Amino acid sequence: MTTSFMANATGLLNPSTPVAFLPPALADQFEQSRYLYAATLGAYVWDIALNLGNDSVLLFKHSVRFPTIVYFLSRTFTLALILACFVDAVAPVENCNAIVLGYSICLVLSQTATAMLFFLRVTAVWYPSKVAFAVFSMLWIGVLGAGITVPLGVREAHIGPTMQCINTALPADTKVAAIMPLINDTAIFLAINYRILAHTIVGDSLRARLRVLLGGTGPGLSTLSQVLLQSGQHFYLIAVATHVTLLVLLKLPHLTPICRGMFSVPALALVNAMACLVFRRIIFGRIGSDGISKAPTTLTSHFHVTATSNPGSLSLDWSHYYGI
Fold first, then answer.
1. Each residue of 270-293: b (16+ CB within 10 Å) or e?
2. Keyword Transmembrane, does the record have it (predicted)?
């Protein structure tokens, strides 16, 4: 932080308070970031608490395979990110750049693990398409590469003589860390929608399907709406909208690095919560393997679910990706 950005300690009523060394507007933003991190932490811990039963079933009564490991890693890294940002905002820290490096790495790991949950879903829906696998693999790698810009660019410094840290640098190139997940999530959302659309709408022409997908009328519109809800696509839509909102906030020129940085934490937490919710619904059979029919919800009946019983549904087996 530059010296002109700080107030002089002389004459301060409470020189041990970090916000006393900040201009009033910046001090307000700093306090708001604390409240936002605290609210995000509380909401995410509450989400974890509500799903402890489901998570224990996944861990102890279900085969722990790669997708389940990714699920728990995404939860762990996201929680670690929120905790690190909260601690950074409220606690004295000796080395500011060390903690910013720590939570930046957690951000990259959380983002890529969540993107992997999206990847598993879309490749299962498009199985056995090698083209889809290759395209979404490259998008996932793009998310990973874009995320690396955050630990390379974000910097913090102590506020005056205190041990409290504040964000001082958020380079423009870190915006790619929000752009790539938006591209990835949007592509996955549209790809799954089209796959469901192709097996739901009565009209078999591409023009008819696109018209219904884009909000037009068609004989299968009501069916499509129901199917998209049953397949968890509304949760993916929330994730896409969250990334759009975050990108807009990052593009606003008058926002300080504090404002730009603090909104990314609740955004990542919400996207992760949506991806994990869809994952649990798939594992427990609340979303059918074909995106159309609902599988039984009992643990003993949803193993090795396929869509072969419905000749008009997608021909795939979730066991290739979810180990069920």
1. bbbbbbbbbbbbbbbbbbbbbbbe
2. yes
